[in-house]
Amino acid sequence: MYKFIVTIDCQPGTRDKILSRAPEAQAAARAEPGCIAYDFYTCTDNPDRLVFVESWADRAAHDFHMQQEHTTRFIAWHEQFHENLVFETIHAAG
Amino acid sequence: MYKFIVTIDCQPGTRDKILSRAPEAQAAARAEPGCIAYDFYTCTDNPDRLVFVESWADRAAHDFHMQQEHTTRFIAWHEQFHENLVFETIHAAG
């Protein structure tokens, strides 16, 4: 399994703009064969912070994901609202 | 740094009961010398899922945290509402 957390500090007040396209992006990603989890979270005490927690069967499944048109479209959408982004892998349990 | 993500699937409808004591728990944890981050997140499309993302200077800082009365009190509080809990370490960036 290939699992990671992406922590996005959004430009003030833009978090919900990003999330406005989340359902569509999540449906498309979750429909991909190697997608185990593709979940988004909002910080309880920082309205400008989001985390994406993604689990993929393996690196190849994630590479496939990154080549999809829906992925590049969603990244192009949310990237414009970033102030900072940190990518960290997770030691997947089990 | 010692960083991890705790994914909690709450019993239906109990997420906000857990979060009702979050501010107090977060203030106490963040006041500890080795605490780098102690952030809680709610899932955007699953009202019964929470993640805690914690960053500690090192294992000893986290061990100290776990021995504090405010920590054991908060864990005892939220544990009663769990359906499932997964603990996974994060490869902290930088």
TrEMBL record, chains A, B:
Transmembrane intervals: none
EC numbers, comma separated: 1.-.-.-
Domain ABM stretches: 2-93
UniProt xrefs under Gene3D superfamilies: 3.30.70.100
Pfam families with a match to the protein in the record: ABM
Alphabetized UniProt keyword annotations: Monooxygenase, Oxidoreductase
Molecular function terms from GO: monooxygenase activity
PANTHER family: ABM DOMAIN-CONTAINING PROTEIN (PTHR33336:SF3), QUINOL MONOOXYGENASE YGIN-RELATED (PTHR33336)
Name the UniProt record assigns to this protein: Quinol monooxygenase
